[in-house]
Amino acid sequence: MKSNAKLHALMKGPLSPLYFCIGDPIVGNPTEHMVEAAFASLDYNGRYLTCNVNAGDLGGAMWGLRSLQFAGGNVTAPHKMRVLEYLDELSEAAMLIGAVNCITRRKDGTYYGDNTDGKGFLEALLEKAGSVENKKVVILGSGGAAGAISAELVLAKAGEVVLVNRTQERALSLAKRLTGISSTKVSVQPWQGTYEIDSDAEVVVQATSVGLFSPSRCVDVQFGKRNNALFACDVVFNPVQTLFLKRAQDAGCIAIDGLGMLVNQGALAVRSWTGEDPDRLAMREALDEAFLCE
Ligand code: NDP
Description:
alpha/beta; Rossmann fold; six-stranded mixed sheet; six-stranded parallel sheet; 14 strands; binds NADPH dihydro-nicotinamide-adenine-dinucleotide phosphate
């Protein structure tokens, strides 16, 4: 059925819409398999390609993708920030964060950049926590993922966002960009030695790269005594069960893994490209399948 649609597109047109995922390194990124499952769930004949693009070739690659009339795609490290200069329009979140992970070609051929990482995270958190309004959220890290998440928390009017990063200047610069956007209070705390999570925090987000591909590594934090329930989220999705989440669960926290964020940001990208919501369960199953291959 699906292959007939592809054949029909090839012989009678219009040609199948093309999508890309660019980054370096890109081998090991399971997005293509997840997005193909999303397309299949919609019976959509889009074709998705994973391409390794070196930092020095980003400009050429972007002009090439435009000329080949790619309908959109995903951008991953190290291009999320530099790609902005090759786009025609940006979402509010992308402008705030200064990074794009999802590009959609508009009807007039222009490229629109958005950042679905933070939105994907927020959807995963809201599923369990209900709301972030008036909640105090501690973010560990101040890189791309932390920036995307904290921007969405500010746009969703969280009570307070506390940025904690090994390099404090980076946290201060992010806090400066996010202050005054909404009623959310944005503050910075130093991270020297072991960081003890504030007892009145209701959410903590592990948004550093510590633990990625390393089940035995964890950021230097202590959960301490708590006044309330604490949702502990990790952006790292490989391994799914990180040491941070295990420690959080041992301390009585409610754990939220990084796979929900990964599926949600991908589903939001697919919606931006097709106008339809793909089957997120099928996307999650595709990821499980990809990780089994490792
Ligand atoms: P960046 O390189 O932009 O930022 C890395 C962050 O980790 C910085 O804050 C850095 O601190 C911190 N860090 C690195 N090493 C240490 C350490 N030893 N101790 C304390 N802090 C440390 O990366 P990204 O923000 O783009 O990615 C972070 C993670 O998020 C990755 O694991 C990535 O796979 C994951 N991710 C998950 C997504 C999902 O859908 N689940 C989506 C996007 C990303 P400093 O500033 O001091 O260097």
